[in-house]
Amino acid sequence: MSDKESHNDEDVRSPMYAALAVAFIAVVFGIPVWWLSTTTYRASLPYQEIQELPTKQTNCLIPVTVISCLTQEEKQDFDNFQAELNALLQSADQMSLLSIQYSIDWKLCSFKDQEVLGTSSSLAELDRRLSTSSDIPHGQVTIYLVSQGYSLLNSTDSFVGTGRVAVATPKDSVVASLIRTRFANEDAMARVYLNAAGARRLDKGYELSFSLLNPQPATFNAQWNIQEAVQAYLNPFLQKLSEFAEFTVNSQVLHFTGLSIKPKHNEEDDSYRLSQNALPLIINPVEAKLGSHVSTNPSLNFLLFVPRSRHLPLFITDNKGQPVDTNAFLSPRWGGVMIHNVPKPSENDSLPLAVKIDTRRAMEVFLAQLRLLIGIPQQAIQDNVILAAPDKTGITDWEYDVLLRVRTLENLATASSTLVSLAQLLNQIGNIVIRDDIANQVYQAVSAIKQGHTYLQRGNLYRAFHDSKRAIAASEKAFFDPSLLELLYFPDDQKFAIYIPLFLPVGIPVLSSFVKALRWMKTKMKPKQD
């Protein structure tokens, strides 16, 4: 081989080896690095467990203690009473996703209980002494069976106190009704599962707004001590519900804000009336003047309206045309309105008239409306059942348990539905980043849901409620995390639109050089094979 041919071969060999080296580096190092650096990170999630959550049956156990304080003659039929009561409670309607079970602990009346039942002079005293004699946990109830002629019952069959205690005669249907309709409230529990596994947007807190509307400040100088009223009548209620939800309270006085409709005049008593059909027309014009709230929690508005002097007295009527006792009405998920009539000024009165609002009466009405707005069921009146009026807190212990139990079921159902929706979204869209902190929230939510179901099955309502709060908080935090949306703006077609102009001008020369290098290698290897 001549020097010239050797020199030409060297000139060809160097570019070919360079092309092969570039191709080798691109394939061995470039593509893996590019793949790893552009791959969407997706932490592992318990998809199988999430899919099983909506179909998981909720077993809710309600512990009941029945204490027999009967006479010797009545105790002879006690075995039959036990069997019949167990049969009535076991015949509770079971839904596919909800199973309500009762565990009854039968006990005999102690000497202390007999003394309390025999020496109490009133039902209020009996309720106080029985409720304070034993510390009954959340979700549990104690029923004392007394003789048919027990004087304090006054010919009725049962008495339900402010605590988790009831007194009843040994009638299996009466006791079963107390347990199922009052203490457990099966209807409220069943309503949770009537719509799509009970999933709905729950409110973690409420902003309570109290407004005094005075359309004629030149005629009436209306004053109310709302701060004192809130401390005296509302704060005990809110403090008892502090674990259930967060509450913030504000108040205001609005002048020159009246009704947008004209009430009808009633000539019989020279009064003015607002029918039920006209009540919805009151809210919309007034709502625009209430101001906006900055809290993420929903606002519940309570309006105390002082009518104009020419419309006094003003009454709200029912569907029969009769004035309602409270002179107030309720708007679901919005609030309530109460009309406060004041003395009509005479010609000799100096204006403005000083008007002092009866805040006690107003707060009684607003508190009753607030109970309904946050989900405390209204108790039906029965002739054979005496219900103790709530104490200064405005809610009995067993009503609070019903509220916690229903909210626990709602939280668990909503958290399960949220996780299922999140899992479906992540499966459908593969380029959503799943960070470790989001996966951690999902695992926490799944664990809290399982623990909530476990505690409900054991009858531990307090622990089940707090686990359900953790479950819904973790599930919503994962579902609404902003990082899930970061790469949704870069679908695959947009990625190709970015990569092709960038890599195509570089890739074609590299690929053509690599092909030439391969052909050169083949030609170099042929003589050696010969």
From TrEMBL:
Family matches, as Pfam families: PIG-S
Pathway membership, UniProt: Glycolipid biosynthesis; glycosylphosphatidylinositol-anchor biosynthesis
Compartments in which it is found: Endoplasmic reticulum membrane
Membrane topology annotation: Multi-pass membrane protein
Superkingdom, natural source: Eukaryota
Keywords, comma-separated and alphabetical: Endoplasmic reticulum, Glycoprotein, GPI-anchor biosynthesis, Membrane, Transmembrane, Transmembrane helix
InterPro entries: PtdIno-glycan_biosynth_class_S (IPR019540)
GO biological process: attachment of GPI anchor to protein; GPI anchor biosynthetic process
A single GO cellular-component term on record: GPI-anchor transamidase complex
Bilayer-spanning residue ranges: 16-36, 496-518
Main location: endoplasmic reticulum
Family per similarity comment: Belongs to the PIGS family.
Name of this protein: GPI transamidase component PIG-S-like
